[in-house]
Amino acid sequence: KRLHNVLAGLLLAATIVSGFSATGCTQKQEEKMPGEKSLYSAETVQTDGKNVVVLKRGGQSSLEVKICPDAGANLFSMVYEGNELIAGPENMAEFDGGALGTPVLYPAPNRVADGKFSFEGRSFDWGHNNKDRFLHALVRDVPWNFQVGSASENGVSVECWIDFAPGTELYGKFGFEH
Questions:
Q1: Which of 35, 38, 47, 65 is most deeply buried (CB count within 10 A of its CB)?
Q2: Distance from C-alpha of 143 to C-alpha of 150, rounded to nearest angstrom
Q3: How far apart are CA 141 and CA 144, in angstroms?
Q4: How far apart (Å, rounded) are the C-alpha atoms in residues 58 and 91?
Q5: Tens digit of pLDDT for each residue in 42-58?
Q6: DSSP symbol at 153
Q7: Cα separations in angstroms, 40 against 22, 113, 155
Q8: What is the pTM (predicted TM-score) of this model?
Q9: Which residues are 153's β-sheet partners?
């Protein structure tokens, strides 16, 4: 099974999608003139050895978001009309997707005391990744697969996913169908 992190799936990302969508909640819709390039664009760049997906909307209410699939599909930058709205990393090489940006907290949100818990009669030990606890679940610091959608006059998107299937390391740590 795949765990999907689609922009519309995150509360914060819902704001982004409405901002990227031409039918979204912008105050003024901008019309593209014949021969003019689209207001929307998408690209993947390498920054300090990590893939970074950059989605942009130009025009009067410009918006740019950056997502790092290599660091847990973390949305770590959102610049609206030139103003950065999310505290992101200063150095991408050291970015693990955990403390900054918008980490995906799955399958256990926030903190697991001593890294141990029980679920449906089974016990799990994830160890420690932050002092005496396991912080921000299993998928926030692992590479995700991704596919950038094509930009059109209606918007732009990226789909990120991670395989949580039997036989994978992640499934071994949380071996339930989900």
A1: 65
A2: 22
A3: 9
A4: 26
A5: 999 999 999 999 999 99
A6: T
A7: 9, 44, 6
A8: 0.77
A9: none
